[in-house]
Write a structure and sequence with these properties.
Layout lengths: L12 H7 L12 H6 L4 H85 L5 H56 L10 E3 L2 H7 L37 H16 L16 H13 L6 H23 L15 H8 L22 H21 L6 H22 L7 H46 L4 H14 L7 E7 L5 E7 L7 H17 E3 L9 E2 L20 H10 L3 H5 L18
Parallel strand pairs: 3-5
Antiparallel strand pairs: 1-4, 2-3
């Protein structure tokens, strides 16, 4: 049969609206569109297919969202499981450490029993002439000792098997933790990156990879004799220089600086005030200094001190029922009448009574002396079982007195003041604890930053000493400046989360600005940070380092006292001095002769 030729209809507006689903409908519901809607045909089938496709894609979209939500819940569950496994791993490690200590005690008991058994055997050999009854008694005692020794051997082997089982379980948990970490790394791509670990290269490694440490030209340093130290020039501004610098002339000037650096500069006026410790805290430091006199025994001495401090902390927590000084605030001290009777000699604390006296005069309290003495005696007995080398009793006692001072401060802080309710006192104590937590966090960050910068400068000095670089003395001066600043002179950083284009999260460190610090000092520290990237090799493990942004606002930390005048910002000192006439005196600005280097316009050669 011949196929019929169907002529396609001409294009018109009404047919276009019908094919695209846009049909005209009159207000009264009539019209050709209403008539055609009910008539099935190829175009209506196409429209139906399109509606089915739209419905299908909508259902797929809803199903995809549900799968994404389920995946997010699964990630949360995996994170919770990871935290639980880490807690279990930490508990297992603690338990293994306790088992190790118990094994050491069993080993010592074993050696003691062996020595005792040998002594008994010697006595048996020398007792040949004794009576038969004495011989039988010695034999029975020896058999009893051997039975006890066999029991100890059995217990020791059981503990070793238990330790091996714990090691196996720990290894299994470690593998599971690693697997969870890998799974979370693949699923959660938006986690927070932390600081990456860096390793300082040695000079040979730097030569192998072709890195070159640039020479930093600085302006010549004026001689001390040519500069007056008047009280009017509070900031001691450094000399400025512009343009190119002759390296040969710079080397000559830096050689003069080296002579000035190695010599003792004249010091006039106020000295930098050093922090002093109470007498009861200085005694342990003196004993520790005596222990560390021999460099060959320094590491053993540190381990020895840590071991005894651990035993002391364990005994104190067991006897006093606290884990830190803050928990003493919830303890009830002895009454005033009990303390008075103890001072008069009519009362002595019970052997099981470890309450501490926090009333005025607590440092010289006889009650506290007796309680601390009991803790020290218990510590010595416990330490002699696990630590070979003993420590002086005075060292342990003075360590406890230092902790007593912190415990009394925590107890006094929560006591209600005049016209203050207990609730207000508790709120004030809680606010102080939050402040201390923030302060500890900031101090730890400053300490890490100071140590990293000191390590960088020390490495540069050793490298430039080997290569006889012309800026060696300049880096020595920067190291001296860093030691003047100390940990308190390091800027604060705050980790913040930012959301960029497309909703991508990223974390940065915002550096807070010190308004009291001279601008030149900040430039030197930025220079040290930039040199760290040139001498450090980033480890492949760990996360990438976070970028730093210097727009974190002003820091609320106060300025450290006793620094040389050139370390402070002159405009800041002037502004604060106008607000308070005694500000400059309270700042205790040191009048030691210290001059900062001024970097040239060509910062890096």
């Amino acid at each position: 049969m011949e196929s019929e030729y169907v002529q396609e209809p001409e294009y018109d507006q009404e047919m276009h609206e019908q094919s695209s689903g846009l049909e005209r409908v009159r207000p009264d519901g009539g019209g050709p569109a209403a008539k055609r809607r009910a008539i099935p045909g190829p175009k209506q089938d196409v429209l139906n297919n399109m509606r089915e496709l739209v419905q299908y894609y909508k259902e797929n979209t809803i199903e995809s969202k549900q799968k994404a939500q389920a995946q997010a819940e699964e990630n949360k569950r995996l994170l919770a499981n990871l935290g639980n496994m880490q807690d279990q791993l930490s508990k297992m490690n603690d338990y293994m450490q306790e088992n190790s200590e118990h094994n050491r005690e069993l080993e010592k008991s074993k050696d003691t029993l062996l020595n005792h058994n040998q002594a008994l055997c010697e006595q048996l050999r020398f007792a040949h002439g004794a009576t038969e009854e004495q011989t039988r008694n010695f034999t029975a005692f020896g058999q009893q000792t051997m039975a006890q020794q066999q029991q100890l051997y059995t217990a020791l082997e059981a503990e070793k098997d238990r330790a091996r089982e714990l090691e196996r379980v720990t290894a299994q948990k470690t593998d599971e933790t690693a697997a969870l970490r890998a799974k979370l790394t693949n699923q959660a791509l938006g986690q927070t990156p932390r600081r990456a670990r860096a390793k300082i290269m040695n000079p040979a490694e730097m030569r192998n990879i072709g890195r070159k440490i640039p020479v930093i030209p600085f302006a010549p340093i004026p001689s001390l004799a040519a500069t007056s130290s008047s009280d009017e020039d509070m900031a001691n501004p450094p000399p400025t220089v512009s343009g190119n610098i002759d390296i040969a002339a710079l080397a000559a000037e830096l050689a003069k600086l080296g002579a000035t650096f190695n010599s003792t500069p004249p010091k006039t006026g106020k000295k930098r005030r050093m922090s002093s410790k109470p007498v009861f805290e200085a005694i342990p430091d003196a004993i520790e200094k005596e222990w560390k006199a021999s460099p060959l025994q320094h590491r053993d001495t540190i381990r020895r001190i840590n071991d005894h401090q651990k035993v002391l902390r364990t005994v104190k927590e067991a006897k006093c029922g606290v884990e830190n000084a803050e928990e003493f605030a919830m303890k009830t001290p002895p009454s005033v009448d009990e303390v008075r009777r103890c001072e008069e000699g009519h009362l002595t604390p019970h052997p099981d009574d470890f309450r501490l006296d926090f009333n005025p005069g607590y440092r010289a309290s006889r009650w506290n002396s007796i309680v601390l003495g009991k803790i020290v005696d218990t510590t010595i007995v416990a330490g002699n079982r696990t630590i070979v080398v003993p420590v002086p009793r005075e060292w342990l006692l003075e360590k406890l007195k230092g902790q007593l001072n912190r415990a009394q401060e925590a107890w006094a802080r929560i006591q209600p003041r005049k016209n203050e309710t207990p609730a207000e006192a508790a709120a004030r104590a809680n606010q102080y604890r939050e402040y201390r937590a923030d302060y500890t966090r900031v101090l730890a960050a400053k300490t890490r930053k100071y140590d990293a910068r000191e390590k960088t400068i020390t490495f540069l000095i050793s490298l430039k000493s080997a290569t006889k670089a012309p800026d060696l003395d300049a880096w020595k001066r920067i190291l001296e400046m860093l030691k003047y600043l100390g940990h308190d002179g390091m800027s604060e950083e705050e980790e913040v989360e930012k959301v960029g284009a497309g909703g991508v999260r990223r974390y940065v460190f915002q550096v807070k600005v010190y308004v009291w610090r001279a601008e030149e000092v900040g430039k030197y520290l930025q220079l040290v940070d930039s040199m760290e990237d040139k001498i450090a090799v980033r480890q492949k493990r760990g996360n990438r380092p976070l970028p730093r942004e210097r727009n974190g606002g002003q820091s609320i930390s106060g300025a450290p006292k006793g620094l040389p005048a050139c370390f402070y910002d002159a405009a800041w000192i002037k502004k604060e001095s106008e607000a308070s006439p005694v500000f400059y005196e309270d700042l205790e600005v040191s009048e030691e002769a210290f001059y900062l280097l001024a970097a040239s316009a060509d910062m890096v050669e």
